[in-house]
Amino acid sequence: MLQAPPRQRPTPERCFGWSARAWARPWRAFLREYWRLHGAAVLPRALELGAGAQSSLAPLLLPLARAVECSAYDAGALPAVRARNDALLPPAEAARITYTRQDLRQLAGQWDLIVLKSVLGGVHRVPGSTLADVHASLAQLMQHLTPGGWLVSLDNGASAIAPLFGHLGARRNGWRLLARGDLPPAQFYAGFGVLSSFSAATRLGALGRGVDHALYAADRLLSPLARRHAVHLHAWRGGAG
After folding, report:
1. For the chain, how many structural domains are there in total?
2. Stated pTM of the model
3. How far apart, in Å, are the Cα atoms of 96 and each of 39, 54, 71, 74?
4. Is 182 part of a structural domain of the chain?
5. Which of 39, 71, 114, 185 is placed for a possible disulfide with 102 were both Cys, Cβ 3.0 to 4.6 Å?
């Protein structure tokens, strides 16, 4: 009987969910910088904040840390998150991830790496919050880093065309779009995309995925020319260690 080939660690595109290739480009840029600074060193502990059934970065943290904690604000979402990640990973790798409920505003613990994807804009929606609230959350998160640790936030950006889609999906619900200058200066920054401000696949299924692929191809040409990107990655380091 033929045996199924062993599962390998997933690519970023399999972890990011909608518009995955656009989100994966800043992440890969951060990884290049991280490996340049740290080589093959493996951190003790990493935390993903805000995982969901459609997107979880915990599998991507396994090469960076010995133990990975994958958390969601809604504990009811954790079984679906775990099932998603388990389907992507070999059993021994999946066993290195623990699943917990965590609230960005009430964290308990210390980590060497904390990663958030599309979290700040959902927690600090408009008009009920301000940029000062966003900055306060980031300052609080920094208190949970070990010396020299990394806080990495990937966020939906206020690209030049974002106002055209203000009536769609999360934008309609007050999701905060962040420009590069809205967040504190970071040790590392990467941005990508102009047209990848929304995902057609969430509305049009297979046809929408084709639209997303076309938008991504166009964004590869437009991104070097753009000053305002659809996806941002900021990475801050904790105190010297």
Report:
1. 1
2. 0.92
3. 21, 20, 14, 21
4. yes
5. 71
